[in-house]
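Annex B, item 7. Sequence and structure tokens for protein A, then protein B.
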Amino acid sequence: MSAGLLTALDGGVLRLTLSRVAQRNALDSALYDALSDAIGNAADNTDIRVILITGDGGCFTAGNDLRDFQAERPSGDSPAIRFLRTIAATPVPVIAAVEGFAIGIGVTMLLHCDAVFAAENTVMQLPFVSLGLCPEGGSSLLLPQRVGAMRANDWLMSARRFDGTEAAQAGLITAATPSGETLQAAEHMARLWATQPRDALRLTKHMLKRDAQAAVDKTLQYEATQFAARLKTDEAQAAFKAFFTKKAKA
């Protein structure tokens, strides 16, 4: 285990389990870095055919750890942006198994996965606007492509919650499963893919994504610039203060 990340390699499938259970697997800088390293290193490991990402304790991730998120950082890509660039560019097929909560980047990272299984009752949310922020993770480009402009407008602008069933109906994910069965479904697909010739599998992924990659890279950079600027606004700071005040009273 490293920085809240459990890793296991079996049968060509590298399982990455987010494990900060007390924080609902919220992503902090250390966990982002651990994920980036694991996914980046997988590209050169001939024993790894597929990456499977899941969460510990019946939860995928509550999104960014907001306290860590507000910390002052040196110039250059933040750990979150580094992770997004890494998962967007990896040649290794990525599958996600989602239960409990998938908030913020817990949803946007799914846009870079090649298959996603979520429990029907999974709570999903893109709360950026409600926090005084803006879309991230390539979602301003990829989400309307995946689910249509009107659904993307709804999810991003209202910041409302939706469940795994709605996500499946909209085409955001591969399938919604009964609660407790997502990992089994994801592992079944991962093991099937892992039996395929490695180079042919990676080439197929590359061919499916090649025309979009430049636009994704450009969007990640644009969103990161806007997001960093929004973090410093009075709107965002007021939203964070309200969030932490409400959390302290809970």
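Protein B:
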Amino acid sequence: MEGVLNSKVLVLNRSYMAVRVTTARRAFHLLVKNLAEVIAVEDGHYANYDFPTWTELGSLQRQYEPDAHEWVQTVRFCIAVPKVIRLLGYDRLPKQQVKLNRRNIFARDRNRCQYCGKVFPSSELSLDHVVPRSQGGRETWTNLVCACTRCNARKGGRTPQQAAIALIREPYKPRRNPALTLRLGSPRYACWQAFLNDAYWSVELR
């Protein structure tokens, strides 16, 4: 159950604008406290459910859509983990700036070394300044890439041209949180797209 409670849930503000991604555990806490409601996308329309109603729907969902949800089994009932919730008293707008950090660089580059093209676990990757800081390179989206330790050591304090190696793709600043973009590729989170199309904002994974 612990893994299910760590599932990701998209959080909307009262105006149906996405503001963050949270865990199922936090989402259930907000629902039980009546601080949020479940938003379900059904046949292109939104359906709003408070916690008691969502709980009552659990048996039907379990019967007809067993693979469409993750499930939490309690002593009294089985409940589907919501994919989207809406805060009932929160009007703040989402952040407009994608945060530049190690996690987002790795997510943008999909853990692929931008020099050799191989995929590595995060523990075997580092950030490389395309133009080294010793040569005036800055901490920017377009000057930082994901690199394996071998390629990083081979490149050293040189530019790719000086080291005679090439980038497999030019680094860029993403329009939205790269970790979120990865989740949108999963069928489980397809309903998020209805709230994210043409969005230019960043959400924090919490």
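Comment on protein B: Residues 2-95+177-196 form one domain.
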